[in-house]
C-alpha cells in the first residue's frame, strides 16, 4: 500500500544530463520517467518541479556580469525546455502529462492555474510545473515547496545524486552516516543543507515533510512512496 496519495517530486536539471556535460541524456530521462510511471500505476497523484541547471543556471558562471533577474528568467526558460522534454518522454511511455508554466508562453505550454492543476491530478495526469515560481531570486527548490503546499501534496520528494542526508559529505568522509529521519529544527541546528533557506522555511511553516533520496538508485522512488527506509525524511 502506498504511504502517500499525492506527492510533489523535485528533480534537478543536472539529473537529466546523465554522464553528459550538459543537455538531456535520452537514456537517463527515459529511466526517470519509467520510475515515475511505476508510482502513477500505484494510483499516486504526481506533480513534478524540475530545475534548469543542465541548460542554464541564473546563479552560475555563465551569467557572470549579467543582471541577476535577467539570468534568473533565462534559468526559468531552461526549466520550460526540460518540462517539455519530460512531458514528451512521458507521452512516449504511455502516460498523460500536462506542463503548466509560471511564465505565460501560451503557444508552447499552458499557464499555471491552481484549480486546473488540481483537476489534472485528480484525473490521474502527471502535472509538470515549469518556470519556477515565475519570479527571479527564487530557486526551483522554493517552487517545489510552494507548489507542494498549493496542491496539498503530502510530501516533497527531493531527488538528488546522494541517497539521503548524511552527517558529513560521504565522498570526503567514509565515516559519514545517513540520517533515516531528522526534524526540521535538527537540520537547521546541524546546518545540513537539505534545500535552500526559503524552500526549507516554507516546508517547515506548512508542516510539509521533505524526503531526500537518490533518483539514480533503481526502484528508490517506489520504495519512498511505499514508506520504506529509503533516503532521509525531514519532518516537523
TrEMBL record:
ATP binds at residues 10-13, 53, 57, 160, 166, 169. UMP binds at residues 52, 72, 133-140. This is Uridylate kinase. GO terms for molecular function: ATP binding; UMP kinase activity. Pathway: Pyrimidine metabolism; CTP biosynthesis via de novo pathway; UDP from UMP (UMPK route): step 1/1. One of its GO terms (biological process) is 'de novo' CTP biosynthetic process. CDD domains: AAK_UMPK-PyrH-Ec.
